[in-house]
Amino acid sequence: MDFTLIPICYDNEHIMRYKHKEDYYCDICNKQGVSYCCDNCDYYRCRNCHRDLLAEEEIKERLRLSKLKNEFKLAELNLKNDNLEDWEVMISDGEILYINKLTKTYSYDYPLYISPSLSDREIKTHNDDRVRCTFTELLNTIKSFF
Ligand SMILES: [Zn+2]
Ligand SMILES: [Zn+2]
Predict the structure, then answer these.
(1) CA 12 to ligand 2 center in whole angstroms
(2) Integer Cα distance of 88 and 71 in angstroms
(3) For residue 60, what pLDDT is reported?
(4) DSSP summary character for residue 111
(5) How far is the CA of 115 from the centre of ligand 2 (A)?
(6) 69, 68, 61, 64: which is closest to 5 by C-alpha?
(7) Does 138 have pLDDT greater than 50?
(8) pLDDT (tens digit, 9 = 90+) per residue, 17-38?
(9) Where are the domains of the chain?
(10) Total-model pTM
């Protein structure tokens, strides 16, 4: 995973840029001389505060990712234990997603338990019906030629 973070001010849409200004004061520690300025508002940070904030963000991001990884593994294990073989776990936008491989649908909630043998039987019966129907139709079509 890529940990590259865009430095931002308190507003998530604002991007901090490196710009050294000796006559400005840091908005965090009030020290004179700043190294980063917000592109969109009057917000300034000195080099030390900026570095500390980025480090903090990176730690948070790492924690979030490792937590997500654990949840992902747990979800896979749960599906296996519940014999939900038609379901697959995916991560989308930092959230756990359950994909049904048969119906091609997805759910943010853990799928409800459906007996795999029951759903197999339903699909088979359905297919048999369709084949029988098509066969009768075909026979009728052939008959109509004579
Ligand atoms: Zn500072
Ligand atoms: Zn800003």
Answers:
(1) 8
(2) 13
(3) 93
(4) P
(5) 54
(6) 61
(7) yes
(8) 999 999 999 999 999 999 999 9
(9) 117-146
(10) 0.53
